[in-house]
Amino acid sequence: MDFELSEQQRLVREMVRDYVARRVAPGAAERDRTGAFPADQFRELGELGVLGLPFPEEVGGSGGDTVAFAIAIEEIARGCAATALTVAAHVSLGCTPLYLFGSEEQKRRWLAPALRGEYVAAFGLTEPEAGSNTAAIRTRAVEDDGAWVLHGTKAFITNGSRADYVVVAAVTDPDRGREGISNILVPRGAPGWRVARRYEKMGLHASDTAELVFDGCRVPLDHLVGERGKGHEQFLRTLDGGRIGIGALSVGIAQACLDAALEYARYRRQFGQPISKFQAIQFKLADMATELEAARWLVYRAAWLRDRGRPYRREAAMAKLFASELAVRAALEAIQIHGGAGYVRDYPVERYLRDAKLMEIGEGTSEIQRLVIARELGC
Known SUPFAM superfamilies for this protein (predicted)? Predict the structure, then answer.
């Protein structure tokens, strides 16, 4: 059993860590304050090859693997969770369906530029009345005179108002239940597509989240992604991989919490000594570090299984569940260690808590992860 990272994976960590220290972390607090989208960072990460890490070179990727991508997301999230979410959603949700199921023309026209950072991608699944129950989607797509015509609304779409294309889950055959769902690529500017609103969120302010409306939106028939009626199967496979990304993002937030708590505990003095010398503080830091290491390797194992073409649905759900709940616990403990200072914006830990909470909700709530795990156990 070998727990060593490959040379490529170590180089990815070093490269991304250096880039984040220079170009991501310094502006994280300001982007949180203003909600500015990290457009420059997104483009630069494309130029560095980060967006293409889990894809082969023949489709425009960097020829890396899922483990390397998880490492990259972890490092970006350590500096700015909103930037990491922008990247993770783009790659795991917006690009993966085209790689796994798209036509050669779709890969050439849309996927390759997206992996270079020239396009922003999104995935349109969630609806106002269809959250955890993904089979309840109401968006319809009907054939009409050589085109798909879409009617419906998508909610809480990461990168939604910034996207150059959205892979939209829609009902194409209403009488076939889950086998009547298909995925259709809708490019920006398609007639009938509009951004209804941009959500004002508790955290992750620099990550774009939007409600999209498709009102008679027309796209060519060849924008169908994969086979008609295979949409439900496609987005379940897509979400499995996306949960690895959210797990890695959660690990990055938890690491940032530990970094901040440890630095503050060494600096803050009470009763004539640093508070890091008090056992109560030491135990909090020790528990954070232990759970963080466990979460990290749950994520890496799920990514490792995916890279080897082995079943990983259970492991991805476990990694996402444990890491996301850890991120919230770590943020709360970091605030507690900071005391009153942790409750004000002079320190970053209050932002870490606001950002961490979404990890327990997005790409399947903690409750859904437990359901997936239970089903994989045969319950």
Answer: Acyl-CoA dehydrogenase C-terminal domain-like (SSF47203), Acyl-CoA dehydrogenase NM domain-like (SSF56645)
Tokens read off for 227? 């086979």
Phi, psi dihedrals of residue 60, rounded to the nearest 5°:
100, 5
SS (H, E, C) 241-273: HHHHHHHHHHHHHHHHHHHHHHHHHHHCEECCE
Provide the CATH topology of domain 122-228.
Butyryl-CoA Dehydrogenase, subunit A; domain 2 (2.40.110)
Q: Any catalytic annotation for residue 118? A: no
**What's the whole-model pTM score?**
0.96
Instruction: Please pick, among 315, 350, 360, 363, the residue that the annotation labels catalytic.
Output: 363
At CB < 8 A and 24+ separation, what contacts does 6-13 make?
A: 6/67, 8/64, 8/68, 9/65, 9/67, 9/68, 9/71, 12/50, 12/53, 12/64, 12/68, 12/71, 12/72, 13/71, 13/72, 13/75
Taking only the tens place, the pLDDT of each residue in 158-190 is: 999 999 999 999 999 999 988 999 999 999 999
Which residues have C-beta within 8 Å of that of residue 367, sequence separation ≥ 6?
132
Q: Give the integer Cα–Cα distance in Å for 304 and 319.
A: 12
Rounded CA separation 115/50 (Å): 8
Phi-psi region of 93 (alpha: psi -120 to 50; beta: other; left: phi over 0): alpha
Name the residue ranges covered by the structural domains of the chain. 7-120, 122-228, 232-377
Domain 122-228 in the same topology as domain 7-120: no
Instruction: Give domain 232-377's CATH superfamily.
Output: Butyryl-CoA Dehydrogenase, subunit A, domain 3 (1.20.140.10)
Class of domain 7-120: mainly alpha
66-122: per-residue pLDDT in tens? Answer: 999 999 999 999 999 999 999 999 999 999 999 999 999 999 999 999 999 999 999
